[in-house]
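re the bet — no i am not wrong, look at it urself. input seq straight from the record:
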Amino acid sequence: MDNDPSDRLGSALARDLNGLLEFEGIRLDDREFTMSPEDMIELDITDVIIKRNEDYERTVCHVHRPPSDDYYWRHETYLVWDDGRTAWFYINIALDEVDLQVKETLRTRHHELLGQFDYLIASNVVTKDDAQVMYDGILTELEKITEKINETLLESDVVDETPSLEALKRIIEQIDASSPVGEAPYPEYKKLYEIVQSLRAAHYASIGLRTAIVERYVNESSRRIDAAESDPTSTAPPSEIWNLLQLLDKLR
């Protein structure tokens, strides 16, 4: 049995994953490798996260891949236990028509915003430079709102491992009310302010979509990990272990 390639690969994976969480004999915190744009394209990977769970005597490696034409969420999970067991599974989540409409609406609202600025420039309501400043300000405000939502979710007592949609909805309502778009100061800006409000709504829907996808992933991932945990013969496919070992060599 010691000559079984699967056993040798599993031992090598356990050694490498646990080794990446140690420095001079000291256990490190969870480790994350974030890909550069070039590496993301070459390796088809967004990030790699390695975590240690002492309670279950196992190390977990998450390989998150960028969206593809077919899947919005692409994620692989590798597990190695101290007793020699291994496991591997992937979770790819595609968007349905309703989900795709959320993404398309966000793109449409953004194009409408650009189109409205072009109209205001052509109508001599604003200069090109002023329009750029206003446009940048709108996007910056959306970024700030997103950061505030994320911070509030992390601090919230109503969420567990992932933010629930109900918690997200309440947080968005609170933050949106504290930073309203307001009324247009001049009639010429009325359409612009309406588009900005619609853009915000589409942006919130996009955040909700990602939250829903993450919850779907966490639920399915937890189910798969529990199943592997309860299987005394759990063994990851040798080809997948080899793929991860090769990837880890590139990340060192």
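see?? The two ends are 30 Å apart (CA to CA). told u. also The mean pLDDT is 90. so pay up
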